[in-house]
Amino acid sequence: MASVTGCLDREDVARLYAAHGAVLVGYACSLLGDRMQAEDVVHHVFVRLLRGDVAVREQPLPYLCQAVRNTVMNHWRKHAREVALDDSGACWLEAPRGHEETALAIERALAELPEDQREVIVLKVWGQLSFQDIGEVLETSSNTVASRYRYGLAKLRNLLKPLGDE
Amino acid sequence: MSSDERFESFLREFRPAPPRGRPPALDAAPFDQVVATEQELREIVGVPSSRAAQKERPGLDHHCRAFIARSPFVLMATAGADGRCDVSPKGDAPGFVRVLDDHRLVIPDRPGNKRLDGMVNLIANPHVGLIFVVPGRDETLRINGRAWITRDPELLREFTVLGKTPLLAIGVEVEQSFLHCAKAFLRSHLWKYDEWPSRDVLPSMACVLYDQIRPDGLTVQDYERDIEEANRRRLY
After folding, report:
1. How many angstroms separate the Cα of B55 from the Cα of each of A29, B38, B71, B176, B179?
2. pTM exceeding 0.80
């Protein structure tokens, strides 16, 4: 894959999309609460990537997450309809067969967390980013990220306790 | 493994679902500066006027019926299961498309080229878009809905022309209808026949086909004869 900025060719972009599309849609969805809009945001980011408007480096996921986040913050929220986080229209987690209810419960519990904790959890658990990478995405220190994560995770466990799945 | 790690791995049993659309790489490829979202499109073009937004009707009112009764020509758009689209023209005497009630109309299937692109699509995907044209009128009637191919003999009998009853008809359930504004026709001067080019500025269909197919042992004249005969004898 092309390193540093450089223009990516279609195959590079298709590979990135296959590798990270799901996590990015999940991340956008956890911010927007709407899967259609989330897919639009990710699509938008990849189109900009194709045009060379978004730069990625060796480890592309943090940069892509940041591009998704910027798109959501700067652009989408200003124009899009009211964000409805408790809306069951999110549906970004795929469940093992028979566990669909649990997936929905996880999404709902996440939606109840404060946004700054929620996004750290999504990026850490499903994006598998380090606290330092997340700090770069969110433009904050890795200590802050780690503490948001601890608080968020504890809250999430509490919300999901009725499932008894642990 | 700490209990936090156990909880994390429990959460990871649920994976983010992959995006449903095709990778943008494939969509955006052959052109630059591609507009990829409705959001972006709206920012460029704006939103429809309230009149344009309000003109949709959920069925066929008397204005739609009158338009269809005077229309000898309709374009039918269909899409296959994979979303690939097709548009084909249908035409006959004005009123050849019958309105059955406020939500249903029927288009007889006259003999064509037997490619059946549109009907094959309808079997996989019933959604259909129609544009009715009335000669000399600058507005068109647009109808969107779902369609089925029917062989109901009682229905087909009503479409008999010169003793020939169609084998099939396309029955449409109307979901949306509205008059499309005149601008395309006004800009194109479509009905100003004194501006029409003479018929021979383009090569004949026979010439084009001959050129494209280059059949062994046939001449352009053979093609012309075949096409002329088909147009004369196999319209119904």
Report:
1. 34, 21, 20, 10, 8
2. no
